Amino acid sequence: MITVHDDSDHNAILIEPLEELSKDDFDELTKRFNAYVNQHDSIPNLVIHAKSFPGWDSFGALAHHLEFVENHHKLIKKIAIVSDSASLSVFPGLVDHFVSAKVRRFPENQLGDAMQWVSSTEEENGGFTIMSAVSDDVVAVEAKGKISSKDYDEVLVPLLENKLKEHK
């Protein structure tokens, strides 16, 4: 089950997965996406706010998810993933190979920053992508393009500080 909220102030659709994703969830998301486009004459960006990735309740749900991606990925410019989940931290690097949208991960407490990012029209020069690590005491990031002090302060420093709290 997901909740879907329109946010026309940020030209975004906020998606919050609550439990295993179903075919009906993606039918509803498609319906809401299309209604947003028709009402605002604008393609919304997506913000996925999740404690963790709940998975799918069936193979059919996975197929509907992939169908949504196939039908919309060339339209959507930005996707923000807002989560502290380790499993979701690999999504930006993974989906970057399959979608044309820019994908960026934000820590759980930065939903507002994610909404601002998807609504900004300025081009970004680069940033960090958090990658899965071999061990829980390792921080792995991919740096792309020109890294700003904001990228460093908002992504790398909090990531390192959280790891240092858990590991010496």
Folded structure, characterized:
By secondary structure, the protein is α/β, with parallel strands linked by helices. The protein folds into 2 domains: 2-122, 3-Layer(aba) Sandwich (Rossmann fold), CATH 3.40.50; 124-168, no CATH class. It has 6 helices and 7 strands, in the order ββαβαβααβαββα. The protein has helices at 23-40, 59-72, 86-89, 91-95, 111-119, 149-166; strands at 2-7, 12-17, 45-49, 78-82, 102-106, 126-131, 140-145. The strands form 2 sheets. Strands 1-2-3-4-5 form a 5-stranded mixed sheet, with helices on both faces. A two-stranded antiparallel sheet has the order 6-7. β3 (45-49), α2 and β4 form a beta-alpha-beta unit. α1 packs parallel to α2. It starts with a strand and ends with a helix. The mean pLDDT is 85.
Summarize the structure.
This protein is an alpha/beta fold. Helices cover about 40% and strands about 25% of the residues. The mean pLDDT is about 85.
Terminus-to-terminus distance: 39 Å
Strand order of the main beta sheet, please? 1-2-3-4-5
The shape is: globular
In CATH terms, what is the architecture of the largest domain? 3-Layer(aba) Sandwich
What's the CATH class of the largest domain, please?
Alpha Beta
| Count of individual beta strands | 7
Number of separate structural domains: 2
Low-pLDDT stretches: none
Q: Helix coverage percent of residues?
A: 40-55%
What is the residue-mean pLDDT, rounded to a whole number?
A: 85
Strand fraction equals: 15-25%
